[in-house]
User: Fold this.
Amino acid sequence: MSETVRTETINTALGALERVLDRRLVAALEVCARCGICAEACHVYASDPRPEHVPAARAERVRAVYRRQHDPLGKLFPWLVGAKDLTEPDLDALAEPAFASCTLCRRCTINCPFGVDTALIMRAARAMLTATDRAPEMLVMLADAAIARGEHAEEFREIYREIVAGLEHEAQERLGDPTLRIPLDQQGAEILYVGLSGAHTILPAAIIFHEANASWTLSMFEASNYGLFLGDPARAKAIARRIVDEAVRLGVKEVVLTECGHAYAALRWEAPNWFGGEFPFKVRSIVEVLADYVRDGRLALDPTANPEPVTYHDSCNLARNGGLIEAPRIVLRAAVQNFVEMNPHGKENFCCGGGGGLVAIPEWFETRMRAGRKKAEQIRAAGAPVVATSCENCNLQLTDLNGYYDLNVQVVGLMELVVNALLKARRRHAVPLPEAA
Amino acid sequence: MTPAWAIILLGALAVSVWGLWGHLRRTLARPWRPELSRAAGSPGRGVIYAFTWGMAPWAKESTRLHLLAYLRGVVFHVGIAAGLAGLALIPWRAAVPAAGEGAIAVAAAAGAVAGWGGLLVRVTEHNLRAVSTPDDLFSVALVSAFLSAGAGAWWGPRWTAPYLALGALTLVAIPLTKIRHCFYFFFSRYFFGLFYGRRGVVGGVQHE
Assistant:
């Protein structure tokens, strides 16, 4: 590779770093005292305790570059402060810590005496890698496919309508109620529900909304936002725009996202920053909606439908980084007979090891399985045969961990447990008493 | 304290303040990107939490697990505060009561022990050794030496000259070395509190 090309690549990477270098990031880069107390907070280190898995060591790769650019001593005596000129091999080597070893879960942040936001630093690293075409191809492809779907929505509309009609029939059969509808493009509906690719996020939601007598309509698009994983606000905004435009066009009061941690992080917390302000509608997770329905008595649930002990894995994006800690527990206490907490849980819960887009990257399967060892131990210690979660990425990772570590558990979404409890309650009410006895 | 020492120390203090002012200017020149999403909790209460209960040893798993390291850090930083207070008080030493002299000496000595202990851990523990830069070793050694001299100087006047010299050096090193984390600490904890308070994770406000 010629010197000119090399310089352009490095300049591009440094330019990407400069663009994201705001006050929060400067503080995160400057404040670390390298006390190393973050080590055991990281699920990757806890699963595979090597010095390079200490969050501070991971972030040090970006700090070294930052110091070379901005620290007076880093410019004069780089060896003294651990500053380093960025090279292409450094960039190549950054991909593993940025995309595979760090899931942006921020467990190190809440355990740091300074509150160092290592996820912010690793997101800057992802921005540098994406800008220089070093991001995992799969993430780029998925992000671009989502954008293309938004650009060609009209071509998909009729096909999607047919698919939804099929799903509607399936949901009617499951519920035993031919009046159930899956509305699409319903102007004036109160809720725009955004699922994921695949019926498993649409069918249970349709049953729940029907039973709660909610005014809702299904989105044409999927909730996932791979632009967020790439650290690329332009792509992330383009993906989010599809849903934002749809919600505005339909005049809904709120967008409800399916069980997906990063989709919640993207649309609930990050997207208003990309768009320059709050949306004219609320953004909530289906978990919050379910908790409201339970609290308001809008769903008749029979917890005996889920008799086995159930433990709950908190998604980092929903719990630690989204504050949804109590809501899923309100739902679980109503929908299952025996809810057992994992230890630790809530904001202190360990990442499953599949977050940050890692679960979508096939070449890092072994990496994420190794990183999930801590979670596997947690599940084993909880002793419950059913593990519930409210995040698709976590669900996939936990399912893989189940096989990899022979956990012998069943991994289910929260909505599925609710639908079980709801169907049993409905059947019980429908059957004449003597027969039921 | 002789006028020469006073000039050296005031000069060092001026360098320190000027350097930190530079850091402040450079940091504030960077964009401020507040979160624009609807708050679920209270950012203000999050910030209060970040600087109060959030610093308590029971607030974090890491400090619950490593209480000794936490206490070492607390003792080290209390010692630094005492060492710097002692440096400011030294021209008026004759007016400082014996109990005050003793308190500064003990706090500085304890801080020195914690500092040297921390340095020992840094060079012997494999994770810490791997993440440490020469600046980390230099900074901890410098501050530990400053506290050692401070303890000596407030115990008896023999160590006053090394104390003043190391004090001047420490003041100059603050903006240049990793010691400046004492300045960025306030930014970092503030942003931490703002972020998690807004999201209803800390600060005692339930998510809506």
Observations:
- Chain B touches chain A through 60 residues (CB under 8 Å).
- The two ends of chain B are 60 Å apart (CA to CA).
- The longest helix of chain B spans residues 3-29.
- Chain B is about 75% helix and 0% strand.
